[in-house]
Design brief:
Layout: H1 3-18, H2 31-43, H3 57-82, H4 87-90, H5 94-111, H6 124-141, E1 148-153, E2 158-161, E3 168-173, H7 175-182, E4 192-194, H8 197-205
Parallel strand pairs: 1-3
Antiparallel strand pairs: 1-2, 3-4
InterPro entries: CHP03085, DinB/YfiT-like, Maleyloyr_isom, MDMPI_metal-binding
Pfam family, one: MDMPI_N
GO molecular function: metal ion binding
Length: about 210
């Protein structure tokens, strides 16, 4: 089983257990909204660009609501579980390449929005995968960082991002937690953050991620 498949299964199980009205870390979204987002992302490529492009966001939001109305929560969860859908299921290796991070982050969006949670101990291979993705994508993930950022992976490895001529903030943690930090979940990532107080505050409030 690939890491993407394992995350997909675990996330689907959690969504089914919590039901449609539980909170997530995605602002304004319940678990129902998140399930619809995941189905839209894989199966409605006409609407997917609006996830990242604000001028197209209105159409994407309408399609997401239509998916909720058409399928209902339980069927959306089963569509997530049965994936990868669309092009992600047609191209060999694309699910693992594209969806491993996406499914992990959204799995944690659900887990960490609940009243009680603890970080998971991730398999060593998944940690390695996430560290490679963080290093390769730091320019994109940290492009909106207002300060310099030094990501220190517990177990070895440093990746630098953000403006070079600004104060630097040190962020230390496991690769999975650094990934969540870089994806805009700063307040919910279990990392150690150090540096000038003002620089730290600015980084914690920044809109990071893709």
């Amino acid at each position: 089983m690939t890491y993407a498949r394992a995350e997909r299964t675990a996330l689907s199980d959690l969504l089914a257990r919590l039901g449609p009205d539980s909170p997530t870390l995605c602002e304004g979204w319940t678990t129902f909204d998140l399930a619809a987002h995941l189905v839209l992302r894989e199966r409605r490529l006409d609407a997917a660009p609006g996830i990242a492009l604000p001028p197209l966001a209105g159409y994407t939001a309408r399609v997401q609501e239509s998916l909720k109305a058409r399928h209902g929560f339980a069927n959306l969860v089963e569509l997530v579980r049965s994936g990868p859908g669309g092009v992600y299921g047609l191209v060999p290796g694309m699910d693992a390449a594209v969806n491993t991070m996406e499914l992990f982050v959204h799995h944690e969006d659900v887990r960490r929005a609940q009243r009680v949670w603890e970080p998971r101990e991730l398999p060593g291979g998944l940690e390695e995968t996430f560290w490679k993705r963080v290093r390769a994508g730091r320019g994109l993930f940290l492009r909106k960082a207002p300060v310099g950022v030094a990501l220190h992976r517990i177990g070895g490895g440093v990746a630098l991002g953000g403006p070079k001529d600004a104060p630097r903030v040190e962020v230390t943690g496991p690769a999975g937690e650094l990934l969540l930090f870089c994806f805009g979940r700063q307040a919910h990532a279990r990392v150690e953050v150090s540096g000038d107080d003002d620089a730290v505050a600015r980084l914690m409030d920044a809109s990071l991620g893709v």
